[in-house]
Amino acid sequence: VPPGPAEAPTKAGAVPTAVGAAEGATGGAPTSPPPSSLGTPPHLRQPPITGGYGYGYHMEPPGGPPMSARPPPRPPTGPLSHAHTAPLGVNESGANTASEVDEDVLSVASVQSRLLLHLGFENPWRREAASERERAAEGRAACAGAGRGVLRSAGGDVAAARASEAKISSMRLRKQAVWHSTVKRHTQVARKVADLYHRDDIPCRAEGCASCRPFVEAEKVAHPLLLSSSLAPRTGASSVPSYLLLTPDAVLQGIDVLNDEAFHDIILLQTVLGMVRTASEATYRKLVDLVSDRDRRFVPFLNEFLIATAVEQPIGEGEARYKRRLIRSACAWLASHFAETLSHPVEVLVLLGEDDDCADDLKEALESVKNIRVETLRAFLESLPNGSALSDRLEEKSAMETSATDFSYPEHLSKREIREGVRSGRLRIGRFMGSRENYLEGFVLAEGAEEETGGAQGILVQGLMDLNRAISDDTVAIELYPEAEWRSESGWVEEDNALVLGEEEAETGGEEESVLVEEQGPEVAKVRLEGSTAKRRPTGRVVGIVQRKWREYCGVLEHDGTPNRNICLFRPAERRIPKIRVHSKHASELAGQKLMVSIDSWVRTSRYPSGHIVRSLGSIGDRKTENEVLLIEHDIPHSTFSSAVLECLPRMPWVITEEDRRVRWDLRDREICSVDPPGCTDIDDALHCRILDNGNVEVGVHIADVTHFIRPGTAIDQEAAMRGTTVYLVDNRIDMVPELLSSNLCSLLGKQERFAFSVLWEMKMEDAEVVSVKFGKSIISSRAALTYEAAQLRIDDASDQSELIRGLRRLNQLAKILKRKRLDAGALVLESSEVRFELDSVTREPLDVESKKMRETNSMVEEFMLLANSAVAQKIKDNFPLTAMLRKHPEPPQSNFEPVINAAKAQGFDLDPSSGKALASSLNLAVIPRQPYFNSLLRMLTTRSMMQAVYFAAGTDQDTRHYGLASEIYTHFTSPIRRGKGRMMKSWSPALEIYACIGADQRYPGMTDKDGVQKIANNLNYRHKMAQYAGRASVNLHTHLLFRGKTTAAEAYVFDLRRNAIQLSSVIVCFYEGGVRDVMFDEQDLVLRLPVSDGPQRPDDVSAGVSGCPDPAVFRYCLRLHFLAVSVFIPKYGLEERVMIPADLRESYVVDEVQRTVTIQGITLKCFQAIEVRISMDESNPNRMRLLVQLIEPNIPGLSVPTPPPEKRKESSEANGDSVATKKTRK
């Protein structure tokens, strides 16, 4: 609709010029209240929940006229209906003229939209254009300042709407003008005007409130979110039911207790939501999730837009004080409003945080207000039956961190200093990634530092002081050291308990006696640098934290059983995370539990961060508990699917309609079958091969058509986008989509009609040459769902001449030709250790483990999946050259191959990594007939030299080649049930793209958004990586469970020698008199130097290899030092573990770096040599059980251990009358 003569073009939610009633009320020219005084608008950083209630922002360029010289904006026209609503956190722009409109508008996040929807408003960005134009026309025709819902209640009649205008005379406009600085490329500063609309039609959202009922009914929502009218008293402190109202501090400190069932019917002020979001985005997201749970009734209240609760901000008033007055005004109004309008008695209970900034204001201002109480959140919790346990979950203030101590980290730079340092080029910003083996080491992936670092992928950070309280995944500011001070990776295996003297400080919270071995001057660093043969890397130090990425961590408490010990150290399961100090009155009860802990703060005078216990996960060692831990630690979404997701599922019984048959290929006559691992229920691919009349063959790959059931933008699509992939554990599967789809309707089950997307090739049988290829949607009926083993047996059975098996034989023959062509082109055949567990059918405990067997049928399926993925990749790349989702495998730098080249050279082989083809050829030649595992181990080492394969949008990188497959282009179109990349992800997928290419589906907006596709790719890369880590952790867990309580012997092979694998596994020094300073560890002489001051003279040197106490009155210590670790591979169990050589043998061995050997007391161990090892579980510390691998053969005195006696295998299932042989379960 074109704008009228007095109007400027507007967007939905913009502020148009006034027409109608505003002019009529004054008899001519439109009017508005004068602008308020200049000051910081509290709403610029926290936009409103609904733009219809809230703001229009106007931009002034730098140097523009002063705000006082500009005409005041006119109030909005028409009813502020749903066309003007905007989610929380969205800046909605409006302007008097088109040139004043801020273009950075309407950036909607799904979490914000969800909050809006739960408030009962529809999403304004999911409307047809026609509806937008209609609403815009209605808005311009209606009167200025009309209330939300008036036009609807008037039946759409404009005249009736104008007649209703007098009833909404309380609508008013307040204008605030401030300087709002924005850091841009040219350091421009823009001035923004915030127009704030105060209204009188905002409901309190209490069930039974007669005065607010019309406003709620006007929303036309079937089940509005309301506070319950049938409440019982919450505690014995009051006989009156209450609605809870939390201050920002209460939310920030108690977010982890709000999940308890005691917290329901809670009022969340708009001001509180804004302050929480400013303070902690993570806490805000948790709060939004609580609002999404309608049964809990966490109800937002728009206090800043209601006339009765809004307050003006005078000149010079600070932001904090203004917010406190807003909260105070809302509390007082709600209490009196409920007393007047509700028929049932109810009070407002305001909960404060510890040392709450709002405490004094609220208690003083509300002292005379009836129907309201104010108390602390901790006091409220202690009045509950389980309050003592809940109190432990409150965020701790820094009480534990205020004790006097000489220890101190370097002070972090301020945000301003960081910005100046980045601008000058002295500092870099990047993501810190901690080492998984050494908690005192990590890398910062800094953008734009390639020139200074010589192209290195990350900047090395080593040691406590250089890490400077950075935790893995934090965004940090880093300062690069001069090249002369660069270091090499340590190669050490270190844990947090290794390097601290005086851990007894945890008992009192003090750290006066804490001395750090790691950070004691340049001597240690110098020895480490000179003693290492590794290449030096760009090295730096963390000087500031840009953004914390703290999360909840799983682990155990270190509690020695001391009574009344409330302050303990929490040891995270992830080695990259430091210990966390927690306060708990129930520490002794939680000592045997796996816990979840959240970090609250980390001050520079504290050795460890401080946190609080969130919840207990279960007993240590329990399989279900340990599974829960590994899912949480690897960020695997594993909650049950929400009702919104389940509502997207088709109703059963599901039937194929005639329309479906009309638009799809009917391939039910083809001899199609699937070939998968045993126990597979999510079957997403099937194959067939038949002979054509011309002598060629038709080969078909059929992929489950998940897109038919999951459409873009739906709740199930968003859930699958968030999960990204199906996660396979040893004893469980975490589905990406609900089971009705993954194991039924989308699964290509045998003898069931299913929807598929089919790729059909015409090929020549003699050389597998592709004559033609076509793509299409289809209906198939699989003849059988075979396992790899069953398919192989039937192929090998010459008596089976069924058409289905003859087709499989043809496929197998073609697959061998296709594989040979790939290998000739330079494809690599690499290996990894994959195992298969045998589980008890009743207890699900592991009974045995074996390496996976590979058959020809495995290769057959793999070859045709590769062929299909390459064909689809080329098709979508031709049609979507910028946004096609592809998968690439970058070529590794030559330096990555140095370890495997040296290992091969020690055995007399020269590997050539100059190209993929050269590397493949040289690997094929590296064979030792009498050592069958040599080539496999060499290929495993080569695998570690590879780069990570990643998904990417085609327009973001010209290099699309997949190095490992020797393919010019590749994607993941197959496995759509278990991989998010195979289906739509927020309006994108290879499936949707290929459908659009062949005209089988429409083109969605996401298909042209290159940046949007790349964001999806980044999420897929992260989810895929974490799923792999979780799978490996599950294998490790079940391996530990398998060896718990027993000892066994196994054949192993020397895999690697780790020259600098020094491990200080326990150093504890308790000083009873005197002080300790400048503790140094002499790596060359293996001596721990402990100079003593302020006390009697003591021995200066303590030999690290001696076990004893030179002077028990001064200290006690226990030190184990391992100078060398021999990495071994155990094929039977697919394990790679270390055999540690103790320090007392340090004088009796010689390491040959060139030949990759170590000689101990005249006996030589070399890489790839066969040995025998003993495997057991070290259960001496229940909180830290670990797999212990010791050498049996060859027999080296002081190192080798005797062969364990044979042990009967546990067969608990046979006690129930079942045969163990039948209990095999798929990983």
Describe the structure.
There is one protein chain. This protein is an alpha+beta fold. Among the domains are: 21-198, no CATH class; 213-395, Rossmann fold (3-Layer(aba) Sandwich); 399-491 and 534-549, OB fold (Dihydrolipoamide Acetyltransferase, E2P); 665-866, no CATH class; 896-938, no CATH class; 1047-1065 and 1119-1206, Nucleic acid-binding proteins (OB fold (Dihydrolipoamide Acetyltransferase, E2P), Beta Barrel), CATH 2.40.50.140. Helices cover 25% and strands 22% of the residues. It contains 31 helices and 49 strands. The strands form 15 sheets. Strands 36, 37, 43, 44, 48 and 49 form a six-stranded antiparallel β-sheet that branches. Strands 6-5-4-7-8 form a five-stranded parallel β-sheet. The longest helix has 34 residues, at 1010-1043. The radius of gyration is 34 Å and the shape is globular. The protein starts with 20 loop residues before the first helix and ends in a 34-residue tail after the last strand.
What would you say about this model in short?
By secondary structure, the protein is of the alpha+beta class. The chain has 31 helices and 49 strands. Helix 2 packs parallel to helix 9 (281-292) and helix 8 packs across helix 9.
In DSSP terms (H or I, runs of 4 or more residues), the helix count works out at 31
Q: What's the end-to-end separation, in Å?
A: 61 Å
Rg from Cα: 34 Å
Biggest beta-sheet profile: 6 strands, antiparallel
Q: Roughly what fraction of the amino acids lie in strands?
A: 15-25%
Estimated structural class: alpha+beta
- Mean pLDDT rating: 72
Q: Determine the fraction of residues in helical runs and give it as a percent range.
A: 25-40%
Keywords: Exonuclease, Exosome, Hydrolase, Nuclease, Nucleus, RNA-binding, rRNA processing
Organism: Cyprideis torosa
Region (Disordered): 1-98, 1198-1227
Biased composition (Low complexity): 12-30
